[in-house]
Design a protein that fits this description.
about 270 residues; alpha+beta; 4-stranded antiparallel sheet; binds flavin-adenine dinucleotide
């Protein structure tokens, strides 16, 4: 039995092609927006996730600068203010362009069952336990459990016994013998996983757009949410807030760790 901690690895984020954006803006007369970016007026460094959200928002009203759309006589030039207004006015569809991909490593099947209930705006590739044979049973223990010696003794004994049963089945089915067809290995591996606990740590790639992230961050850090998913989403929250502070800066983190947005359900 291997004791593990749930981990969040942010592995992909948006990247803009500013040359293509410049070609588009030249056609609609919005070059001044890009010039503000180039001069660093909108942000100390280029922040592609935030710039993409702003770009998509401004395209809607052609609000690159006053007058391009005769209905627009004033535009916000500060990105923080622009994006705050976008959140406040619930223009959340713009946020769907901005996606982040995470490897969620050492998370239990308890957690992944709950995570996949969030449907729009996500993509999921989960480790297949039909294909990947269990050789050990990685398992996360919360601190309060680790502080209980009797509980730890009994639970690690039980996990060790389950691991031995996995090894016994491997030998019993002869899975590592010469010539065993892959289809047979898959068939038996799928049977064997039924004897693994739901707390088994596994992993997935989880991609979510910012609209979904804002909603799930609130729901899954709420005091009533399950403790492992709360812990995981606190890590996801820290990661995305560092990436795009203007898109996640309105959250307050309460004493009990709940992320509460100023603007709910954009
Ligand atoms: C603390 C907690 C306890 C829970 N307990 C249970 C439980 O005991 N049993 C259980 O089965 N589930 C439980 N859930 C899961 C919960 O019921 C939801 O399925 C899950 O949180 C997904 O969130 P969502 O419904 O907001 O949908 P998401 O898929 O995250 O969608 C986001 C939003 O998009 C809209 N939307 C998405 N799909 C549709 C649709 N098909 N039609 C219309 N609008 C849509 C809704 O406005 C929705 O809020 C729990 C969740 C939490 C956070």
């Amino acid at each position: 039995m291997k004791s593990v901690e749930p981990e969040v690895h942010l592995v992909a984020r948006p990247q803009l092609d500013y040359d293509e954006i410049a070609r588009y803006l030249a056609d609609v007369g919005g070059q001044s927006w890009l010039e503000r970016l180039d001069r660093g007026e909108m942000d100390a460094e280029l922040n592609d996730p935030q710039n993409l959200a702003e770009f998509a928002g401004r395209l809607c009203y052609r609000s690159w600068e006053p007058g391009l759309n005769p209905n627009v006589t004033r535009v916000r030039t500060d990105q923080d203010q622009y994006l705050s207004n976008l959140l406040a006015s619930m223009h959340g569809s713009v946020l769907e362009h901005v996606s982040f991909s995470f490897v969620l490593h050492n998370v239990s099947r308890v957690l992944t069952h709950e995570l996949i209930r969030h449907r729009p705006g996500v993509a999921i590739s989960q480790e297949s336990l039909r294909f990947v044979r269990l050789t050990d049973l990685p398992f996360w223990f919360p601190d309060w459990a680790k502080d209980d010696p009797e509980l730890m003794k009994r639970s690690t004994e039980m996990l060790a016994q389950m691991e031995r049963f996995q090894q016994w089945m491997t030998e019993h089915f002869g899975l590592d013998e010469e010539g065993v067809k892959f289809a047979e290995k898959k068939h038996k591996t799928s049977f064997m996983r039924r004897f693994a606990p739901e707390g088994l740590a596994t992993g997935l790639v989880w991609t979510a757009n910012v609209r979904t992230l804002r909603h799930t961050l609130e729901a899954r850090t709420a005091p009533g949410a399950e403790e492992e998913i709360r812990l995981l989403f606190a890590k996801i929250g820290e990661a995305v807030r560092a990436e795009a502070p203007a898109l996640f800066g309105d959250y307050e983190i309460t004493e009990d760790g709940a992320w509460v947005p100023k603007w709910r359900k954009v």
